[in-house]
Known about the structure:
The chain is an alpha+beta fold.
Amino acid sequence: MPISRLQSTLAAMAAAVVLPLAAAPSADAASVSTWDKVAKCESSGDWSYYRAGWPYYGGLQFSKSTWDAFGGRQYAEYPYQATKEQQIRIGEKVLATQGEGAWPTCGPPAGLGDDHADPYPAEPPAPQSAMAHITPVKDLTGDGVPDIVTVEKTTGDLYRYSGPDYGGSTRVRIGYGWNGMSEIVGVGDITGDGVADILAVDAETGDLYRYSGPDY
């Protein structure tokens, strides 16, 4: 049994999480570390806390009525059956409506009303490469080192990056109009002129084309 609940008066219990409609100052959010402090106080940090006959469940000691009222059943029937993250997400909803007073004994000491950090911020989208069809090809420059060709998405220009330091090499534009291709493959010299060639598939027609260097 959480010590804080033993020490709470009946009035404090009535003002706790039991009543989802109780008026209280609102707060936006709190970090996971702050919620951990609340749970440490409420349930000794046991996010699976359950005791027969005790009307509060889980790490944040939700009543069943509060859990249901704030959408907890989308995760589990009872709070202690939900994950820590799921309990915190419901806690965020309670906090936004009732403020830290929903946890009168443990919320204020934990700084629940002063945190305002998003516990689970959305991850930023992965950066999108400006290049498509990053394709290793045979040696296009005659230095004996394989090269890489890429297509710039916005322009369709074909660029060559020379090895061995591909990232640090200065790119050279060797063609244009390549954004209509779905596949690009470096096949070496197939025409016998001593210059590596490139095969490409037209994205619209599916036709296979050979492009002979050096002016691809």
